[in-house]
User: Fold this.
Amino acid sequence: METKTKKRVLVTKSDQDAHEVSVRYLTQLLRDKGMEVIFTRYAIIDEVVKTAMEEDVDVIAMSFYSSGLMYDTTRLMELLKEQGLKDDIKVIIGGTISDQEKKELLQMGVDDVFMPGMGTLLDVVECVNC
Amino acid sequence: MFNDDTLKKKQLLDEQLMAAMAAMPAEAVPPPPPPATNWSGISLKHSYGPDDIKDMDFQDIGIPGNYPFTRGNYPFHYQVEPMLMNQGYGFATTEETRQRRQFLQDLGSRSQGGLVTAVMTLDLPTQRGLDPDHPAAAGKVGECGCSFSTLDDFSEYFDGLDITKLFTALLAIDNALPINALFAAYILDRRKENLADMWNLPCNLFHHQQFWDAAGYPPKTALKMSTELIKWHIDNMPLACPGAFDGYNLGESGAPPAMEVAFALAHTIAAVEECQKVGLDPNIVVAKYLGHPHVTQNFFEEVAKLRATRRLWAKTFAQRFGCTSPDALRHKIVIAQTAGTELTAQEIHNNIIRTTIMAMAGMMADLEGMWVVSYDEAISIPTEEAVKVCVRTYQILQEETDLPHVTDPLGGSYYVEWLTNQMEQEIVKIMNQMDELGGYLKCWESGWIRGQIEAEAAKRFTKIQTGESVKVGVNKYRVEEIAPPAEIYRRPIEIEQKAIERVKKYKENRDHEKVKAALENVKLAAIKVDKEWPSSGGVLMPALVEAARAGATAGEMSKVMQENLGYGYFSG
Amino acid sequence: MLKSEQKSSADLVKELLGGSVRAAARLITLVEQNDSKVPEIMRQIYPHSGNAYVIGFTGAPGAGKSTLVGKLAKLLDQKGKKVAIIAVDPSSPFTGGALLGDRIRMMEDVGVKKNVFIRSLGSRGEMGGLSEATYRVANVLDAFGKEYIFVETVGTGQAEVEVTKLADSVVVVLSPGMGDEIQTLKAGTMEIGDIVVLNKADQNGADAIASSLQTALHWAVKHDTWTPTLVKTIALKEEGIEELWEKIELHKDHLVNSGQLRIRREKRIRIEICKLMKDKILRYLNKFTGESPVFEQGIKEISIENKNPCQQSEVLLESFLSYLKQGGQG
Assistant:
């Protein structure tokens, strides 16, 4: 039986960050769209890059609520570039993000940023899919 | 509650109204609107009358200050003691935190007994038990609160302050035992003061995995941690209130009001039962609990919920645990918190209106104290301007309005008394449901509680996404804002480096052998707690205090505990 | 899935053999898609496989299987062994999507360990619960140099049976507090488990369950001369993991010494070939019944000429065989 190409998405958040509801919902929506979603919680951001590589994902979607946004994302982008993965993986960041931070994230090479009140999860799914 | 004559009169009026409406031409009569349903799922009529509460036992309403305290814990309350202003705050640097404390004091912010609140939010690594130099702490030190890991940090934050005049609470979550051990060590060794003079709210929030997605202790262990925290404080710091009735985080994570109280009360019961196992008297333990409920804009539902909470608390602890002390039977709601989830990032000044409504609901429910959240909460750590508005909120409500003149002014309202009953019934229904499913602990361990909250959260989330739940300015009446970017608090980057250096230096300048031995004792105590409970109840905290006094860091103590007690993701 | 560098399979295999994690991951993705490129890739992979030892982990959800697998991987890593974990989760039969990796919780133990490779697979429509690509994925990891490959399944009946065909050693993970499930599992356990783990052995009732399991295992029907063993663990506290490893090694030695290992692997190859053949035939059959005018005509004839389905199916089978011979034409 021929298996169609499936989009693989890594949805992840820090295991210190308490917030999770929208992330859970997002994984459900992505799954409903026929994607394979790998959901993990990381202690150190380096784990995310290892997971992304081993799981051969197309998209990394990270969520930040309380803390760690700039540091973790900076390090993620550095490691992705280092490992030669940046061009093959789309990076989407969502959570409690200010306008200034959004600018900086996009400059870093993050593909899309979702902030509170800007767009719905369905928009995020669209973004993942395209 | 009402005599037949009154009820007949009411019925007659209702019938006359129906007849009058039926007699009018169809176009002139508006169709009756569909009944509203409140967030807890209770269906509401358009208006209420004596017939709705005719079967109530007057005793359940009573008078303010009397068991079961439906109408309030005291006969006169705001007439003599304003609602307490228990704002939490926390910054990466001592200077900023002290500045904020001074700022609040200057504005007139007052807590219990006129004390200034020192309810301190801590950064994620501290909550988790990671020292600043731990790799997983990178990028998070001081970011959403204060960083604490050594006695030096305590000196930084508290030296020069009269701690007996502070209403201190360090929201340390999983790290509560080591952090409070350090606090005790600081007072004993560095201040050479008396533990008995200190007000402290060590928070026993070890069951957070029910509603948060951060790593934590296994359920049974969480109850033991809570017991250790409570027992030690009862024995050593009598002014401390180590019991937290946390409804706030349940509500924030999605639980509707009745569910919030059901889960919080069930947890408190389990925690008190665990305390009983190690020989503590419920009369004393229950009196050490303070309420921290969620308060949303569902004004009447919240008022009814809070009244029902007091009533249920009194009845439960009197009937089920045989408590007789009025201090135990009174549920003291000292830090109710206005719901963060009600606030929006768009048109942030609307949040002032929202928090005012929530603060008013708190007052009408006759709470002891609240944490009114700032209008910029949705986008950052509160700025001075926003915090000032919070303080003014309390002050205006207390001193410019007539709200404080009468205790429980809503008492006797048909609707409010009816709804209080309904909320009580709904809460009890959920608690009974848990019993049927095998008990609270089983519901927790299996992930059922988490599942319930997530399901409710998903419902609410969908409602907001579809617009069924209105958020003015966001999903309705929205206009594109060209608002200037709000001032966002960003911690200075050097903070983390400084914190790392400080903890490294601390670890170098101490008696290594002493620390090693002390940590070994912590390990033995943790193993005993794990394997020899409840006979080993009470051994862990003293071992931690000794380790703190020997120079161990919070991270080191936490590591020993986590390794020997289990740590990670449980429940379902 | 367009990748910035479209490498040839030969290049990827070369990099794989050179130790490139990325190449391994890419090849796994390619062999998961059962398309025409796969046989060529596998042709290049096979010569380098056959060294890894496969351990299957199964058992109902909630027993702490993922934690156990994580702790065992951590132990092996500490011993300098190269490990891979394949975690299979069910794909939705309706949308084809899947939520994977939700159970891999002990990232702290193996999250950044270079020598532990973790890959999550969706069952992708396979009724058995193990995607048929799992065999090929294991081969890729084998060629990559992994000495031990753990295959973890959700363990819902069919998947358990599937994993026994793929694995050299099968570990069934149970825990107390699973109520009646223990009873039902006991029935199946005896048939598939080489090693039975009672995890969360510090919970109420653990000793009693361990006792009755031990008895049941003693009386179980044995496939060969190996008696299934019981190990008690508290994975969370890393207790019993060494013991589990010892038992696995004992089983491995037993298989090697008794010649069973060779037999099992041959059986596995046989099963895989049968599966591939079945799959291909099914593919052609679907094509035949979907597109072939001969088939359509045959169906019409049943109603027109009153032929009965049984008879007609024999006729159509003949047509199908010709269809096959002609490479799917006619």
